[in-house]
Amino acid sequence: MAETNLSKPVHIRVDKWLWFARQTKTRSLAQKLVIAGGVRINREKITSASKMVGPGDVLTFAIGERVRVLKIVSCGLRRGPFAEASTLYEDMSPVEEKPRHMSNAEKGLPTPHGKPDGRERMEARKLSGKE
Question: How many CB atoms lie within 10 A of CB 16?
Fold first, then answer.
């Protein structure tokens, strides 16, 4: 019986790694992201999806409004579940502050007090022109 080599590869295509690490939904979307110039490897902008990456490389890219900075730990063998995919990288992204939730009083809006009574419903209908 022939032996198969199932050890992890040392280098892998950047589009394939982005897909394995679950940073994009499909490999073709990963290719489009790279070709559009949206990915940097070790601070160098790349436009070829076939560029090889390996452990120690740092990828910088933006998806939506968020900038991701990921240090590659492993190349992986497949696109596995999230728990497996998250072991492929170390997240070095800058911490973003979440917008603080403002209360209605801080926004200058009236505080709701539950279901409107009959008088409030009648006034609302008059304002909307239904009565």
Answer: 20
* 59 beta partners: 41, 70
Instruction: Name which of 47, 87, 77 is nearest 14 in CA terms.
Output: 47
* Distance (Å, whole) CA 7 – CA 43: 29
pLDDT of residue 131: 65
pLDDT of the residue at 8: 67
DSSP single-letter state for residue 10: S
More confident residue, 91 or 111: 91
d(CA 46, CA 33): 10
pTM of the model: 0.68
**CB-CB contact of 87 with 74 (8 Å):** yes
User: Token pair 């790279």 is at which residue?
Assistant: 34
